[in-house]
Amino acid sequence: MSQNETKRKVAFPMIAHYNPAVKYLIEQGLGQIYVMQPAMTRRTMALGEKLAPDMVCTPFKTILGSMIEALEAGADTLIMTMGYCRLGYYGELAESILREQGYTFDYVNFAEYTTGRPKDYLKALKAITPHPRPPKVLKALKEALDMVQHIDDIECQYYMNCGFETEKGSFKAALNRFFKAMTSAKSRKDIDRGYRACLNAFETLPVKKPEPVLKVGLIGEYFTVMDAFSNLDLEQALADMGVEVHRWMNVSHRNLDYPGEKNLHVRIKDYCRYEMGPTSTANIWKAKKYAEDGFDGIIHVKSAGCTPEIEIMPVLRRISEDYKIPVLFLTYDTETATAGLMTRLEAFYDMIAMRRKVIL
Amino acid sequence: MKKEAYLGVDVGSISTKGVIMDGDKNLLASAYIWTEGDPIGAVKRLIEKLGAQFDRNAWQVVATGTTGSARKLVGAMLGATVVKNEITAHAVGTTAYHPDVRTILEIGGQDSKIILLENGIAIDYAMNTLCAAGTGAFLSSQSRRLGIPVEDMGAVALKSAHPTHIAARCTVFAESDLVHKIQMGHTKEDIVAGLCEAVVGNYLNNVGKGKRIQEPIVFQGGVSKNIGVVKAFERALGAPVIVDENGHLMGAIGAAILAKHHDARKVFDFGIENVAFKTREVICGQCPNRCEIICVYRDGKLIDNWGNRCEKGDITARQAKHA
């Protein structure tokens, strides 16, 4: 193996807070350089919106914008994920749009390799690094996946507690330190240290939670529900009102520890008989679970035109009636004004808070 | 000792509403004027009107609530003690007069909503999202096309025996369908009645979709003044629809009641006529997000700002640092 090979500068679209884990795998496992583009802003959206087909769902626009920002930041190799809905085709579409715009880059679209055959996964690896060392790759992959689980765990705890901090901004500061630690991690030790430091901070930071506390469960389309830029910081806005925000949907739960379609289907057989899309079964199951667990409300989040999530709305309305739990439906497009969202959220908060007062 | 009164102001896209109430839900003063794209000017005129109807020697406004889409701006202007979204304000205002209401239908200038209640508590609501077809703005633009003042549309609609079917999915479709029907020779009465039905159809298909509409049903917002739409609702729902005489003021009434129940107290002295309020939009240049920050000035002094999404654009913090 030649040491003089020039390293690739690899980038991945900004997706929620998972990029540090991708960086870890690329740098520690595959020995390449990872290029981290800036966090998504309105500029990202504007770049994507200009080039994307109008009717495509919003995440495609932000992902495309994010790819352009990665190329501007010096990346020469782009990786794109696969998916179970239209997302599976987006990799191909993004590539052809970028090539038409005259960008030059190497492209590794996982949708072309995820066939289930191990040989094809090895091909994907080889597309990034010509001589992968499987033990090193596997070790880094395991560590990166552990990092993903840590990120999800920390985020869950953050949104459940940050609304009740007594020192304003203390939870956010700990969270930012955690993301910094994950971004700069070079070994399992670094990952574990950053994770434990944040857990420790969350445990010791002073909080004042009323008893009982208002609990809201978030469900919805995979990307928009997880990505704070895309949902206009919905979770933070709710937490700031004094709500314990729960979101089951994340990469750990949906991809790494997923109970499986069949298992989940048994639990929701009163509501649906068929599989409806990549996250539909899980969302219906989780909505029912939130209702059974005595949550005060459910918020369903999707980008405009997300067919699988539109299809589960009637089922959610039935759950809402059966369990007498309010469900707020939010649809996001490329708008960035928060006034309309805040009106709906404030009204939702008032409603669940008043209900709670009457029930008690 | 002056008696306590509460001011409620509801500033919508089309109209600006205000009430002054005593502690027993009696109206001491009320006013309804057009916003005309100038919420600050409208509120000044509104306050002048309210002040003239009201005995300032006997009563004192001790708390102020604002609601409607300009609630923040107007809240900063009036020094409001409560700033509430219009959904909550409407639910609170309506249940004060109709405690057993189960469904509130509300159609305003730019938005429409439905609120479902049980035992005086909102249990579910929905608001129109992307489309203005089922709202007052649609009716007033069509009234101009037909040359019938929007206030008269209800009465004209009642004269029709065969409402013309008009596609109600979206304003643009509805408009082309309407033009087509006019050219085909349908009478104006039938067209206006068809428009009222289109508004109801659009509302029930979008905002009311999947909601169980139960009696008693209260209909409010500016469009509730249109008797043609009220009748169309009754036909579509097969149930009586109540329109309160103060239905157009319900948001303001709700805001005043919320101000009363809230702990905060601040005497309002009506002295805003000669105060200069200005707003300015500042685009933050700290990152590519370019937040549009709205700054509100009272006599040249910054009293509030919003629209900023991170600490980098925190104007008050920066001012404190420079002070």
Protein described:
The complex is a heterodimer of chains A (360) and B (323). Chain A is of the alpha/beta class. Chain A has three domains: 124 residues, Rossmann fold (3-Layer(aba) Sandwich); 62 residues; 151 residues, 3-Layer(aba) Sandwich (Rossmann fold), CATH 3.40.50.11900. Chain A has a four-stranded parallel beta sheet with strand order 2-1-3-4, sandwiched between helices. Chain A has a four-stranded parallel beta sheet with strand order 6-5-7-8, sandwiched between helices. In chain A, helix 4 links the parallel strand 3 and strand 4. In chain A, helix 7 runs antiparallel to helix 8. Chain B is of the alpha/beta class and 323 residues long. Chain B has three domains: 100 residues, ATPase, nucleotide binding domain (Nucleotidyltransferase, domain 5), CATH 3.30.420; 145 residues, 2-Layer Sandwich (Nucleotidyltransferase, domain 5); 46 residues, no CATH class. In chain B, the strands form three sheets. Chain B has a five-stranded mixed beta sheet with strand order 3-2-1-4-5, with helices on both faces. A five-stranded mixed beta sheet of chain B has the order 8-7-6-9-10. In chain B, strands 11-12-13 form a three-stranded antiparallel beta sheet, covered by helices on one side. In chain B, helix 3 crosses helix 9. The longest helix of chain B is centred in the middle third of the chain and has 19 residues. Chain B is globular. Chains A and B meet through helix 2, helix 15, strand 8 and helix 16 of A and helix 3 and strand 8 of B.
Given as residue ranges, the uncertain stretches of chain B (5+ residues, pLDDT < 50) are none
Which superfamily, in CATH terms, is the homologous superfamily of the largest domain in chain B?
ATPase, nucleotide binding domain
- For the record, the CATH class of the largest domain in chain B is Alpha Beta
Query: What percent of the residues of chain B sit in helical stretches (DSSP H or I)?
Result: 25-40%
Largest sheet of chain A: 4 strands, parallel
Please state roughly what percent of the residues of chain B sit in beta strands, choosing from under 5%, 5-15%, 15-25%, 25-35%, 35-45% or over 45%.
15-25%
**Helical fraction of chain A:** 40-55%
Strand and helix order of chain B? EEEHEHEHEEEHHHHEHEHEEEH
Total DSSP helices of chain A:
16
Termini Cα gap of chain A: 70 Å
Q: What is the CA-atom radius of gyration of chain B, in angstroms?
A: 21 Å
